[in-house]
Amino acid sequence: MTETILESVQRAKQLLNAKELDVNAAELAMQAVTGKSRAGYFAALRDQLPEESRSLFWEYIEELLTGKPIQYILEEESFYGYSFEVNERVLIPRPETEELVFYALSRARRLFGDKVIQFADIGTGSGAIAVAFKKERPNAQVTATDVSEEALQVAKRNAQRNDVEITFRQGDMEEPLMGQTWDVILSNPPYIAEHEKSDMSATVFDFEPSSALFAEEDGLYFYRRLAERLAPLMNKRALIGFEIGYQQGEIVQQFLQKAFPEANVDIVQDINKKDRMIFCEIQ
């Protein structure tokens, strides 16, 4: 069957819409199979779709109709303007996490100027936070940890892909960082409570690694643990930053304020005006 690019995408969108799936993924799939930029895609909407491209496009759509995220199908996602490999061993980087990096970079400049800092990313997953921070602040000495060796292999490839030097350490959360002190520690740990699973999209919990999504203690376990254990690891002037669930700000703030009584602990909203980050500045 001969179809234009537009006709194929419209038909795919109808199928996705019928299953209440993201219809925009059809355009991303088409851009991938045709190798076109977004502008190039729109310019070519009336072009006939070659058979080879058509076949691959519908393979992608069949996968999308199972609920599989387009990022895992294409094995790629953009984060902070950089390209990352992603697969089902790691979470797909989100725009909210870009904001964590943005605000951390801003606060680090204010606290440390241009000096060389020791930076750690706990639970790095794809390496998105660590790589983006290193790209934006090249003189930072960056270390990234993850309990999953499979995730670390993805993160290592992403460091190579983006031409940055990062030290990777396997282990449980903060444990690989012991024996050293740090200027900046960031983490986007698992923070979803098990009871919230029913509210989530199936494309998330059916495909993304559950160990990177869910946490005990109503999603608060890792925040409490890190607040209790990071004090010996921080330099006298230091910055801790977490991504948080939008309802967790006050209690995570309490965890950090108890652990660091003299610190400034701020809850920061994301672009959607939801509590999404918390920063602890130790002076």
Would you mind describing this structure in some detail?
The chain is of the alpha/beta class and 283 residues long. The chain folds into two domains: 5-67; 91-282, 3-Layer(aba) Sandwich (Rossmann fold), CATH 3.40.50. It has eleven helices and nine strands. The protein has helices spanning 5-18, 24-34, 38-43, 51-64, 70-74, 95-112, 128-136, 149-161, 202-205, 221-229, 249-259; strands at residues 77-79, 82-84, 118-122, 141-146, 167-170, 182-187, 234-243, 264-269, 275-282. Strands 5-4-3-6-7-9-8 form a seven-stranded mixed sheet, with helices on both faces. It has a two-stranded antiparallel ribbon with strand order 1-2. α1 runs antiparallel to α2. The longest helix has 18 residues, at 95-112. The chain is elongated. The mean pLDDT is 91.
Summarize the structure.
The protein is of the alpha/beta class and 283 residues long.
Strand order of the largest sheet: 5-4-3-6-7-9-8
Distance between the termini: 67 Å
Q: CATH homologous superfamily of the largest domain, by name?
A: Vaccinia Virus protein VP39
Average pLDDT works out at 91
Number of helices: 11
CATH architecture designation of the largest domain: 3-Layer(aba) Sandwich
Let me know the largest β-sheet.
7 strands, mixed
The arrangement of helices and strands along the chain is: HHHHHEEHEHEHEEHHEHEE
CATH topology of the largest domain: Rossmann fold
* Overall radius of gyration: 21 Å
> Into which percent range does the helicity of residues fall?
40-55%
How many distinct folded domains? 2
Low-confidence stretches: none
CATH class identity of the largest domain: Alpha Beta
Based on CA inertia axes, which overall geometry fits? Answer: elongated
β-strand number: 9
User: Which structural class do you get from the secondary structure elements?
Assistant: alpha/beta
